[in-house]
Amino acid sequence: MTGRPERTGSDGGPGDPGGPAQAGVQDGADDRLRRFAAIWSRAIYPATATSMTRAEFERHLMEPARRLAEALCGKPFDPVAGVEAGAALVAAHCTEPASLPHTLGVIDSYLALYCPPGNGQSAEETRARCTRLQHAVAAGFAESLRERTRFEQEAMSRAALRAQADAEQALHSSEAKFRAVFEDAAIGIGIADMDGRIIDVNESFTRMFGGLEHHVRSRKITEWTHPEDSPGVWRMLAELMRGERDHIRVDKPYYRNDGTVLWTNLTVSLLRDRAGSPRYVLALMEDITERRLLNLRLRYEATHDALTGLPNRTFFFERLDSTLGSRRGVDRFGLCYLDLDGFKAVNDSLGHAVGDQLLVAVADRLQSCVTGPGQLVARLGGDEFVALIADPAEQQEVTDFAERILDTLSAPVSIAGRELSVRGSIGIVDGPVGERGSAEVLRSADITMYRAKATGGNRYAHSDPEADTRAISRHGLTNSLPMALQRGEFFIEYQPLVRLSDGRVNGAEALVRWCHPLRGVLGPDQFIPLAENTGLIVPLGRWVLEEAVRQARDWQFQHIDGKPLRVNVNLSPCQLHHPNLVRDTAEVLKETGLDPSALCLEVTESALIGADEALLKPLRELADLGVDIALDDFGTGYSNLSNLRRMPLSTLKLDRSFTRGMQRDPADPVDIKIVEGIVSLAHTLDLGVTVEGVETGVQAEHLRVLGCDTAQGWYYARPGPPEHLHTLSLADATGP
């Protein structure tokens, strides 16, 4: 920041030992504000036109200084104090060009020092707030100066018109008044005849163009064209010269004689005589060159990433909105959404400094992939980057860009003596403009990128509307899960477990369902994985356990021969790792009064592959309580059979894939041998065998002959309400 004052003398930092050691917190805050106001005053007082003394001016700055300090540390952050501070400078006649950059320099160097420590605000957030306050001060200064200029311009116009109207009655008096305003005005004033030739200018006008009056007098207005002139400005000027309009107000650039550019806020007014005929053209100019440069710099900082220098999220969305809404020559678009694979591991293991260097290297490589004016690479944040291709000739052009990205990232990056490999996953979205908005396009690209990452990473994938719909549906279900549990939208169906020896109902497996208000009844395969990913499986599993155990207790009271029906409840891997599993189970059994032997907890084989003693400990404690443990989906997890001896199991649940060959007669001899071997092994280990997916009587008979203990499947009954199971058990008990 230009104009930053040096830190010297008694205006030192917070550690300056100027005050009493025992001063209170408020006195310390006031002292810091007075020092800040003193530094600020010393920086800009020489450039002011105020009538105040130095001390008065310093006191004048105390209130805006206080407001800036409060805004810097306030919650929530409100930059309006910066706008008011800029306005306060103009109100104090601090309108010289140096006043604003010196003020911004003081804020940049000193304001952060007066933010009270321990307020929970990081240095990065404090720096970001300082930048926003600088922007707000510049905006407030510019707006106030503009309003003041407008007021002067209107006063000048009125004075000029009055002078012209009174010329016939008091020519000399009017001329003196007009000349006083004309010559002493801080803004540039030029008068031209109706041919557009300049006939008079004031000193400020001449100074703006380099100080040589003969370079501006007698020139025509139409000679001062510039490539960055606003569209239509010359058409509006021609209309004014013809008397079709009275005023024009634009920001207009001019070339000075030395080739530099002067930016002005230009107001052109048509002066008419008493009869209403056009007589002169009055031009009022305010030099806004420094303000414009400052705004351009602040605009750059607001739209570019500070670490990599790439356009940031703000700039990217502006360009994407413009591209998707384009009606001028852009028919299609392409977008590549990149997320680095394994970047978190780099940050966690090597530190954020190395991670930042890696991001800079990736940004440089991505920028090298840009080969045309319609291509843009930006950083959205973290390790997420995006490339936008405006009007690609065909989809292959977008695919080629993605391949260039992966190719340029393939070479290792050398950082701090290490060779770091870089991989990335890319989601590609392309299509015609005008059909989708920015948010929808980016969401599709994000979903597609995660599909690429889920299939191994270091690759790209093209968007698929059906896959997007599934992902959005999963997201909606995930968001609805917590409230669904609170609203009681879950219910349990029970599938009977039948003893093969006598065909009697021995118990049932509890299967949770979700009665979704919009999508109807959902099976566990549609929401259990989502619950596991979000951690909701623990409270949901506790609810299922409570409901199933309570139902088993009700069956025990209702059963005709008084023998309890067992209930099987599934445990997810997340529940196995939860520290309160054993305690919760014991509490539920105690509250309901159900005998632990009437409860069986099913654990999938895949969840116990390679299980250590820490994972088996809660299962052993549950078994010690008297709860049965069943190994579900046995045969699908490729577990070591020798591990069965150290697991606290009571039952093996054989996966249905081993018994499909028994649905016909004769049965598949290979399936017979496999099941026969598993049953023999299980019984040797004193384990019961339950078979899932029994669908035919032939299949049930084969399993009975092979010695399987219990079975479940559609042959016996589909999952249903608890009353259905009680009816089946009564029928078995009474018999034919």
Describe this structure in words.
47% of the residues lie in helices and 18% in strands. The protein has an 8-stranded mixed β-barrel with strand order 13-14-16-17-18-19-20-21, surrounded by 4 helices. α14 (438-454) links the parallel β11 (424-432) and β12 (459-462). It is elongated and about 125 Å long.
Summarize this, please?
This protein has 24 helices and 21 strands.
In the sheet with the most strands, the strands line up as: 13-14-16-17-18-19-20-21
Mean pLDDT: 84
Unreliable sequence segments? 1-24
How many E strands? 21
Helix content: 40-55%
Number of helices: 24
| Rg | 40 Å
Major sheet: 8 strands, mixed, barrel
- Distance, first to last CA: 97 Å
Query: What global shape is seen?
Result: elongated
The class by helix and strand makeup works out as alpha/beta
Percentage of β-strand residues: 15-25%
Spell out the key features of this protein.
single chain; 736 residues; alpha/beta; eight-stranded mixed beta barrel; five-stranded antiparallel beta sheet; 47% helix; elongated; disordered N terminus
Helix/strand layout:
Layout: H1 25-44, H2 54-73, H3 80-91, H4 99-110, H5 123-165, H6 171-184, E1 188-192, E2 198-201, H7 203-208, H8 233-241, E3 247-255, E4 261-272, E5 278-287, H9 289-303, H10 313-324, E6 332-340, H11 343-350, H12 352-368, E7 375-381, E8 384-390, H13 395-409, E9 413-415, E10 418-420, E11 424-432, H14 438-454, E12 459-462, H15 465-487, E13 490-499, E14 505-516, E15 520-522, H16 524-534, H17 537-558, E16 566-571, H18 573-576, H19 581-592, E17 599-604, H20 605-608, H21 613-625, E18 628-634, E19 651-654, H22 669-684, E20 688-691, H23 697-705, E21 710-711, H24 722-734
Parallel strand pairs: 11-12, 14-16, 16-17, 17-18, 18-19, 19-20, 20-21
Antiparallel strand pairs: 1-2, 1-5, 3-4, 4-5, 6-8, 6-11, 7-8, 9-10, 13-14, 13-21, 14-15
